[in-house]
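Duplicate of earlier report; Domain X domain-containing protein input re-posted below.
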Amino acid sequence: MEEKINELYRPSKSDVVGGEDGVEQGNTSWPEFVPTSGPDKTRKVDYIRFGGHFLIGVRGPRADAAVLRKQLVEFCDQRFRIKLDNESLPIEHITKGIMFLDHVLCRRVVYPTLRYTATGGKIISEKGVGTLLSVTASLKQCIKQFRKLEFLKGDREPDPQPCFRMFHATQAHTNAQMNKLLLTMAEWYRYADNRKKVVNFCSYIIRGSLAKLYAAKYKLRSRAKVYKIASRNLSRPLKDKKGQSPEYHNLLRMGLVDSIDGLQYTRMSMVPDPDYTPLPSGWRPDHEKILLEYIKLTDQQTLDEQRSCIREEGLITPQDYISMLVWSYKKNAVLLPSFKENDHKGSTEDLGSDTDELGDEEIGNLDHVDSPKVAEMP
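Output:
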């Protein structure tokens, strides 16, 4: 794919594209603007993969996408013995919307006013027609996943149902687990245009599901009574089954109970905005950096360079330092006298007295060993 990206890349002067050095070139007055068609349109290929899912974006004619698909099928067959067909690799136009990892990639037509400075210093304003790439979270896929987790029931209007899997857990533990789920979903939909709407909907489903669970667990009959006692974010303690409510704040101050965290994103204003910050050039995910570091450390040449650097600075590795201590102990320790097999029982009784007779001078020889500086290894 790296070879195909370089092969099919044809930049245009009127379009904004990033060069090889990361510097944008073209009409930077409207960086998101992409011409709809014509010779001024840049031809470009993008590739992204997440686990076993991958997406190839072709900015150009459909023929380029068909040729690239054919080459991809042949490559997977020859290299990995994986049989792919056209049905598993469909070619969809961006106007219809492309589903990828519960996100819909589509485009919106815009009519921006492009202003630029012509020769002679004259400022020219032109009305253009272009498109903007839009990434939205699929609400249908979100509802589908909640149904799998048994948080929802009903086909037309989604209605929360109690998550009885957390029935025997405490209120603090249940709220903490649901907050982890909400934070994960907020991070998953970080780049979606409708991030606020989708995350707030997820918070509504989870909050309603927990309210029904607490109503059944503490025999409160309805969600309204649960919200009245535990507040909107379910952060106040509920009564136990016997109807006795101990002083929660006193128990919390003594450390006898866990603090109850309220649910996140109970209002849409609490949900963070979509992140439109572009990734820097040469960006790599954290897990890929760790893998590259591991590959580099397992290389024999890297290990030899580290050892030579340690010798030049007069340091010693922790492994060599421990080996030196063990060898000094074996060399300076006093050997115990050997016992006969017939006196085996007596030897075990006299073993402690013999070791007690060892002088502090013999055992203390280890304290006089020169202790060089130990190198800090990563």
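Residues 19-24, 26-31, 241-246, 347-369 have pLDDT under 50 and may be disordered.

Merging into the original ticket.
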